[in-house]
Design a protein that fits this description.
By secondary structure, the chain is of the alpha/beta class. 26% of the residues lie in helices and 32% in strands. Strands 5-4-1-6-11-8-12 form a seven-stranded mixed beta sheet, covered by helices on one side. The protein has a two-stranded antiparallel sheet with strand order 2-3.
Length: 237
């Protein structure tokens, strides 16, 4: 099984932590970086090959990860000379990828079973499978619904539930056949294209632990929770 980890972003929202370190290398707890946790999880779940799409401070990632042998993985690299979006880096790798593979962001902390997601993707035959998570959004205002100049409904400070993308996807190589390598392509664009073609992505719902470490508050939370969650995130370590 092959996974592509997107690790080329500048991590602007996580500054100042990412001023000198790429976001996947910021430490969680006392021993591990985000990226090492992900690599250990992939190895434990049976993945053999990983491609790291790197850019900003990519040489630090190369030095830290090496060839992946310390985790029992074969790791290679693809360097982005300019930002290509979420899916854009994958287009440059298309010809060397298996028919079905995993794509994920390099800043995700979760106990998701990546292997099961990919297995479900293969079995369902969808062009793409998106791991989703229920996120609650609290609105701090009274919400009005109006029609023809009159208020017809009112809810005081509601909590809204949304299924959001976790930044982890099962992808079929044929899904990317019509896209030009070297041109930016975002996850949003790909999903909208698939919907327009009436070939919708499949959903893989997940209700375990998931944290997208995009902001300083998220990073502080990850460190505060890590000791409690270590056994769940890193089984046997």
């Amino acid at each position: 099984m092959h996974a592509i980890i997107l690790a080329g972003g500048k991590g602007v929202r996580l500054r100042p932590y990412t001023t000198r370190l790429p976001k996947p290398l910021v430490p969680i707890g006392d021993e591990f970086s985000i990226l090492e946790i992900v690599l250990r999880q992939l190895a434990q779940q049976g993945f053999s090959d990983v491609t790291l799409a790197i850019g900003y401070l990519g040489d630090l990632i190369r030095s830290y990860v090496g060839d992946g042998g310390k985790w029992g993985l074969r790791i290679d690299y693809h360097t982005e000379d300019s930002p290509l979006g979420t899916i854009g880096p994958v287009l440059n790798l298309r010809d060397r990828l298996p028919a079905e593979f995993l794509v994920m962001n390099g800043d995700v902390l979760t106990d998701l079973d990546y292997a099961d997601l990919l297995d479900n993707h293969v079995r369902c035959g969808a062009p793409m499978t998106v791991a989703t998570y229920c996120r609650q959004v609290k609105v701090d205002f009274g919400v009005l619904t109006s029609r023809a100049g009159h208020i017809v409904d009112f809810t005081e400070k509601p909590t809204l539930n949304y299924q959001v993308s976790m930044g982890v996807y099962g992808v079929s190589r044929d899904t990317l056949a019509d896209y030009l390598p070297g041109v930016p392509l975002g996850f949003d664009e790909l999903v909208l294209d698939l919907l327009a073609k009436s070939t919708p992505p499949a959903e893989y719902r997940f209700d375990g632990y998931w944290l997208d470490i995009g902001r300083p508050d998220d990073y502080d939370r990850a460190n505060a929770e890590f000791d409690r969650l270590r056994g769940t995130l890193l089984k046997g370590v």
